Amino acid sequence: MMKCYFLKQTAFIVLPAALILFYGCGGLKQTEPEKQIQEPETVFIIPDGKTPEPPLSRTEADTDSAEEEPLVLFRPDSRYYYYMEAQLQRRRGNLDGAIAYIKKAIDNDPDSLYLEKELLSFYRRGNNHPEALSVLEKIIGKDPDNTEMLIIYGKLRQGMKQTEEAQKAYEKVLATDPTHEDVYLLLGGLYSDQGNLADAFRVYTQLTETFPEFYAGYFFLGKIHLKQGNLTRAETAFRKTLELSPELWEPRFELLNIYELQGRKKKVVRLYEEILEDDPDDLRAAMGLAYFYHKTGMRESAGKIFRELGERSLSNPEIIKKVVQTYIIPKKYEAAIAILSGMLKTAPENSDIHYASGISFEEMGHRDRAIPHFMKVEPNSAFYENAAVHISFLYQEQGKTEEAIRFLEGVIREVPDNSDFMLYLGSFYEETEAYGEAEEILRQGLEIDPENARLHFRMGVVYDKWGRKTDCIESMKEAIRIAPRDANALNYLGYTYADMGQELDRAEQLVKEALKHKPGDGYITDSLGWVYFRKGLYDKALIFLEKAVTLVPDDPIILEHLGDTHMKLGNKKKALEFYRHSLSKKDKDKEGIEKKIRELSGEIQ
């Protein structure tokens, strides 16, 4: 593991994901909500419609007894008893208990598809995809043409990113029963996402043939024609969509795109006007028309709409959200900047507009133009914290770490109870090797938020760089206590143990746990290889280190680890090759690797 990787990786990158506070993308949905298996709500429902076992007779007792035995409906070892207990546990929110009881019911009646479906529903409630998949495969094995189960199987495989298996399931559903509208959409969407337009076209064509009055097939055929550059056919398909469902807005915007590509300016303006006549509050249409005016040189018409939007934005935050949704998230930054700049003329103090403008300029690489906008985000704005963090890291990217420190110190004076600002300031102190100041500000953060795992992690990193290994280990332990699934903290502690040659079994356990949460991570893979190196298991170390270098080819620490391992295995030429490669990638601390190269070069000669 290259520790400095995690310094950059852990808590400090603030990307436009902050814009998730705005609304997400809208549009025409390809899928309907997944239908869950309906569970019985009546206490005495009998699975499979079979006749229930007769209730046991009451225990004979002295008729003079004051107490009576309760009526027992089902034997405690029957499938009915276990089924009812499973439902009771499910209603109490105890899915593990429900699963345990339904399994016992299945043991009593292994041929019951109903009980298998109940078990499946429990696993799906708990998002336990592997177990749900196992149950589904058993059900489908017993009933291979059960389209309901095949659809669930396909959705499960799709959710697990196992696209090919999902496609096979959906194809089988349509071959068995071609009346499932939603399956056409699911399957066509999978093919489209893979760039397999031929199969997507086939599926959507089948949808229009099977359901000629259903608009969605024509819409997605239009999208394919558009991707293929066939604007005429795309226009025909979108017009057919609107003929079948005139209230839809998305086909209209697709037509606007086509008209713009064809240079039909009058058609563009007229269609925008039609949309706004139908709905004067359609923000997407207003912005689209204004930007069309702007880029076609009709600046006065554009400015009028921009100014109106700016005035409205002071009381309607949905306007900025629509800019983000329509232009910033799809990375149409030039359009976003044109719209936002126009709006600022009538709303110059709107913090949301300044924040969105800063994001747009930053993403375009114009850092100097982004900072002034972030600076104008007021402390009472929901985006103030994000704006402050953006400013500090933009300074850092420009090599102005001291300026970033002064800026954050000022922010903390204004907002003294925000532990996140202290976390970021601590990272900058750490970068300038001001470890005492870093420790102090992180301690202040922990006084505010003692259960903040990121603060404990950062403190551990500071102690590590400071040479205080024992304190580093204790801080990492605290981070893991609070966030036991934090792969970075698990890996950092495991690597620290390995690097110190201590607690190697514990180190192996920690790094393996980290890999569970971040499979395929090159730095954690390197850590595991380094643990095995420290254990003297050099052949095993080589396997993981070679895998790590394929994942992160130019990391100097991983390359040096490979050199050390080849050296232990007697592969001196290989070792020298990796040492030299490592040296070429190092920016500092070169003395150790240079010494290894000198000594090994002398031996080989």
Short characterization:
The protein is mainly alpha-helical and 605 residues long. It contains 32 helices and no strands.
Description:
By secondary structure, the protein is mainly alpha-helical. The N terminus is likely disordered. It has 32 helices and no strands. It is globular. The chain is 70% helix and 0% strand. The longest helix has 15 residues.
What is the share of helical residues? 55-70%
Structural class: mainly alpha
| Mean pLDDT over all positions | 86
Approximate shape: globular
Question: In percent terms, what proportion of residues is strand?
Answer: under 5%
- How many beta-strand elements? 0
The biggest sheet amounts to: none
Flag low-confidence runs: 1-73
Number of helices: 32
Radius of gyration: 32 Å
Distance, first to last CA: 32 Å
Defining key terms:
0% strand, globular, mainly alpha, 605 residues, 70% helix, disordered N terminus, single chain
Question: What topology does this entry show?
Answer:
Layout: H1 3-9, H2 79-91, H3 95-108, H4 113-125, H5 129-142, H6 147-159, H7 163-176, H8 181-193, H9 197-210, H10 215-227, H11 231-244, H12 250-262, H13 265-278, H14 283-295, H15 299-313, H16 318-328, H17 333-344, H18 351-363, H19 367-375, H20 384-397, H21 401-414, H22 419-431, H23 435-448, H24 453-466, H25 469-482, H26 487-500, H27 504-517, H28 522-534, H29 538-551, H30 556-568, H31 572-585, H32 591-604
